[in-house]
Design a protein that fits this description.
Blueprint: H1 22-31, E1 37-43, E2 46-50, H2 58-61, H3 63-73, E3 76-80, E4 83-86, E5 92-95, E6 99-100, H4 102-107, H5 113-122, E7 131-134, E8 144-145, E9 157-163, H6 171-191, E10 199-206, E11 224-229, H7 232-253, H8 261-280, H9 301-306, H10 308-325
Parallel strand pairs: 1-5, 5-7, 7-9, 9-10
Antiparallel strand pairs: 1-2, 3-4, 6-8, 10-11
């Protein structure tokens, strides 16, 4: 895995692009469409969608890019607040399928039919989605999903979602969930022999770009699909490459160590003390008034009478007082 090094934004405009034939421009727009991960959560018996930020630039670039994106992506408006478009052809729908013991699923229909009805009420085209991601089954016993995945007739890939930084201790759980989903489709094909089994594997989510090595991320979940694992060997290899990447990042990050907070505080204190000592040393003949530096303190009585100007001022003041007394 190569370390993502963000580049500085460039103001260079590729002006010959508009002179390309329409077919070439359409292929370039199509190649720039990136599959996204749209999350669906249930809160208080209501479903809501969340999408990564700034992942559909083609919809706002120009009219031609927007029309091309809708043509190749077949986007559907699934939420107006916030405004979220979903492509059943390209995007992944991440949701919790729920898990029940197999003997319950044998005698009882799926108890999450409401989720299918919810998607169909938005747009019937959502039942034709091709890619989904599901949360794993964390229990140690085999279970089956409560959502009827067999109703997604065009489903091509099912990924068990996991985070890139936690794959080291989730291996058994993830591939056990893969096995559970395969058993579900084996059971569903007994009732519908024409049902095709999609590709089932583990999908790894991770941060990219500037967010990759930050300790804290914003409230927006902008993780992307960074790897797909078919077996234990592929996951172990990704784990090895991830550790190597972390060591490389740490070595580059701390090659020139920055001063610690206490060291910076000590340096600031020493600089403050040295500046205060330099202010305490009075000049040999301090002027009575310094117009160019109004922030300095006025001279004391002893300083004023010790200078010729101060002595003359004192004598003049004394004469004025004597005249006043007389």
């Amino acid at each position: 895995m190569a370390l993502d090094t963000p580049t500085e934004p460039s103001d260079v405009v590729f002006s010959p692009f508009t002179r390309f034939p329409t077919e070439i421009r359409a292929k370039i727009w199509e190649a720039s469409i990136t599959p996204r991960i749209i999350r669906c959560q249930q809160k208080n018996s209501r479903y809501s969608f969340t999408a990564p930020s700034k992942t559909l630039p083609l919809l706002i670039t120009c009219r031609e890019s927007r029309e091309t994106a809708f043509f190749y992506g077949c986007y559907i408006l699934i939420s107006t607040s916030p405004c979220i478009y979903f492509s059943p052809k390209l995007d992944y729908l991440l949701f919790d399928v729920g898990w029940i013991p197999p003997h319950v699923a044998t005698f009882k229909p799926p108890i999450r039919q409401d989720f299918i009805i919810f998607l169909e009420s938005i747009d019937p085209g959502l039942l034709g989605l091709r890619n989904i991601m599901v949360h794993p089954n964390w229990s140690e016993e085999p279970k089956m999903p409560t959502v009827s995945l067999a109703q997604f007739t065009k489903l091509a890939r099912v990924l068990v979602a996991t985070d890139e930084k936690t794959i080291s201790f989730r291996t058994e759980v993830l591939f056990s969930t893969v096995h559970d989903i395969r058993m579900y489709y084996a059971h569903a094909r007994k009732h519908d022999p024409k049902l095709s089994t999609p590709r089932i594997s583990v999908g790894c989510l991770g941060w990219t770009g500037l967010e990759r090595w930050r300790l804290r991320h914003g409230s927006q979940d902008d993780r992307q699909l960074v790897a797909v694992f078919q077996d234990y060997a592929a996951m172990k290899e990704h784990q090895r490459l991830l550790r190597e990447e972390e060591r490389m990042f740490t070595r580059e990050r701390f090659a020139n160590p920055q001063p610690s907070f206490m060291q910076k505080l000590r340096q600031a204190r020493e600089a403050s003390e040295s500046s205060s000592k330099s202010k305490d040393v009075a000049p040999v003949s301090p002027p009575l008034f310094v117009a160019s530096e109004p922030s300095l303190e006025p001279p004391s009585y002893e300083d004023a009478i010790s200078t010729p100007t101060g002595t003359e001022m004192f004598q003049l003041t004394a004469e004025i007082r004597d005249d006043g007394d007389s």
